[in-house]
Amino acid sequence: MTHPNSDDLLQWYDINAREMPWRTPPAEKQAGVKPDPYRVWMSEIMLQQTTVATVRDYFIKFTKRWPTVDDLAAAEDADVMAYWAGLGYYARARNLLKCARAVSQLGAFPQTYDELIKLPGIGPYTAAAVSSIAFDEPSPVMDGNVERVMARLFDIHTPLPAAKPELYAKTAELTPRARAGDYAQAVMDLGATICTPKNPACGICPWWTPCLARQNGTAAELPKKTPKKPKPTRHGIAYVVHSDTGALLLETRPEKGLLGGMLGWPTSDWCDEPSAAPPLDVKWTKVNAQTLHTFTHFNLRLDVMVATVEGVPMVSGRHWVEKHAFQPSALPTVMRKVWDIARKA
DNA sequence: AATACGTGGGG
DNA sequence: TCCCCAAGTAT
Fold first, then answer.
1. Chain segment A327-338, per-residue pLDDT in tens
2. Structural domain count, chain A
3. Are A311 and A169 in the same domain?
4. Is residue A251 flagged as an active site residue?
5. Are residues A252 and A311 in the same domain?
6. For residue A337, how far is the Cα from the chain centroid?
7. Is the CB of A87 under 7 A from strand C?
8. Distance CA A83, CA A260 (A)
């Protein structure tokens, strides 16, 4: 019974590594070019709970706009949030900026897991990924892909998240001292392309031989997971008001909580039976369409109310944005949906 | 420890 | 249609 070998996976990775904008191309790597820690870090933050396909364009946009960590550190908060709009998990954008400013202050990125994990937005996964990929520290990297691969490799049936310590032990055991960063990316690539959640392609897997789940025919049912709770549906009202000068009334949402720090329309609270909370005492018209949106832990149905006012009266906590300066792309997706409905009304 | 936190794509 | 899930972190 052969034991899984990191070299077998690295050999596969050297041939099959997917090209990504944050990876050093093989030719340059061979010439000794080291990855840019800023780009590695940026990619890892964006890749948290987000697919490579979605991240690619955002990464290119961000690094073009802010080529270095010092550039990003000097950016306006609202500018960064607008660039992040649509990518989700907006606390990442707020922490991205905090982290950039901390690193800029330090003068350079810390190079070790222990130092990196102290920075905002960097947890166990990201600290391990950056220290290994950018700085060759052999930190075991465990994300959802690695968990799945380990659960199958060792045929572990303990459900997640209880299985994490056990899976981490296997991850650490398999992580090589040399090329730990490449190895981590190799396991993640394997999980994304071959050892997939559904229909794993065991027939072309470089770890076909040692994989216990493959031997036992249990690969497709692993990893086990504890059942999740049902999603409630909440209701709310969004208010889109035009000034007769062409301006729109918007708000920057509070730092904490859902869509924190993002631009959005004034809304009621979101609950079973929302109480009307229009931002202005004018004649509102209910649009004959609703916004449906699914968040991580609840569904949302928003009614959309529209109105027109004369001039641009001051409204506490809200601000008017001139039409020429208004960019729907700066809104989180749910707010973009509201705009799509309101503009047609 | 358990919950909050987005979004888009695939089966 | 609906459910799953994707390179997790903060509290």
1. 999 999 999 999
2. 2
3. no
4. no
5. yes
6. 20
7. no
8. 14
Distance A139 CA to B2 C1' (A): 27
Q: Per-residue pLDDT averaged across A83-98, rounded? A: 98
Residue–nucleotide distance: A30 CA to B3 C1' (Å) = 45
Residue whose token pair is 């996964």: A125
The answer on A251 and A128 residing in a single domain is no
Q: Is residue A128 part of a domain?
A: yes
> What is the model's pLDDT at position A1?
60
A334 within 8 A of A259, measured Cβ to Cβ: yes
Active-site residue (options: A19, A44, A251, A255): A44
Chain A span 110-169 residues with beta carbon within 7 Å of strand C: 120-127, 129, 143-145, 148
Kindly report, residue by residue over A137-161, the tens digit of the pLDDT. Answer: 999 999 999 999 999 999 999 999 9
Residue nearest to nucleotide B8 (CA to C1'): A54
Q: Residue A229 — pLDDT band, cuts 50, 70, 90?
A: confident
Distance from residue A31 (CA) to nucleotide B4 (C1'), in Å? 45
Q: Which of A184, A201, A221 is the last residue of a domain?
A: A221
**Span A118-138, pLDDT tens digits:** 999 999 999 999 999 999 999
Check whether residue A162 and residue A309 sit in a common domain.
no
Beta bridge partners of A271: A235
**Pair of tokens at residue A37:** 């820690």
Clarify whether residues A39 and A88 are in a common domain.
yes
pLDDT of residue A2: 82
Q: Which CB contacts under 8 angstroms, 24+ apart, belong to A48-51?
A: A48/A89, A48/A92, A48/A125, A48/A126, A49/A88, A49/A89, A50/A87, A50/A88, A50/A89
**pLDDT tops 80 at residue A184:** yes
The average pLDDT across A53-65 equals: 97
Assess whether A211 and A237 both reside in one domain: no
Do A180 and A260 fall within a single domain?
no
